[in-house]
Amino acid sequence: MEVRGYAVRSMEPNDEAQVRALLESDPDFFTSTQGAPPGPTDALGLLNEMPEGKELRDKFVYVVFNHDGVLSAVIDLLRGHPKDDIWYLGLIFVGPANRGLGLGTRALEAICAHVRQQGGHALRLGVVREHLRARALYDRTGFHFLYERLRSLPNGFKVTIDVLERGL
After folding, report:
1. DSSP string of 138-153?
2. Among 24, 60, 98, 156, which is 20 to 30 Å from 109 by CA?
């Protein structure tokens, strides 16, 4: 996958400390989506967490570095979920220092191109309803609303998720 102006590669276990620091740079994001700041295993969990019935070969986690070699974003993709020709964007997290620079838009376009090259016909994602800036990005880049769902976590936190999709 290529994001214009950035270096992108698959995340490796030795990237865990950098990814954890990136996620910890915006505790408010995680508090609003999970009811708590990111935990010590959240970064490494990106590599292994997936829905039942999926295999590691269906999971793609990418790290995105700026021209100075600083980690700027992390992307979590899942092939064939919820259907074979649909990919699921589990996370696109752009660090606070890199927001407002067009990285989110460029990354989404790169993700869509990547999924299309791999034979996918649509990209689906869930966005917390209160994340108006993220929702504006998705609306601007061609995603449309499918349905809403209530997400309940083991810690008792509940949040409304808007499920969106974009045809490729």
Report:
1. HHHTT-EEEEEEEEE-
2. 24
Residue 88: what are its φ and ψ, rounded to 5°? -115, 125
What domain range includes position 44?
Answer: 7-124
**Whole-angstrom Cα distance, residue 47 to residue 76?**
8
Is there a domain that residue 130 lies in? no
Residue 90 inside a domain? The answer is: yes
> For 82-131, what is each residue's pLDDT tens digit?
999 999 999 999 999 999 999 999 999 999 999 999 999 999 999 999 89
User: 158 in a domain, yes or no?
Assistant: no
CA neighbor of 48 nearest in space, from 40, 58, 39, 38: 58
CATH number at residue 72: 3.40.630.30
Q: How many domains does the chain have?
A: 1
Asked if residue 53 has pLDDT above 90, the reply is no
6 DSSP assignment: S
Q: What separation in angstroms does the CA of 6 have from each of 9, 26, 27, 29, 122?
A: 10, 21, 24, 23, 24
Instruction: Please tell me what DSSP assigns to residue 165.
Output: E
Q: Which whole number is the average pLDDT over 54-73?
A: 95
Please report whether residue 99 resides in a domain: yes
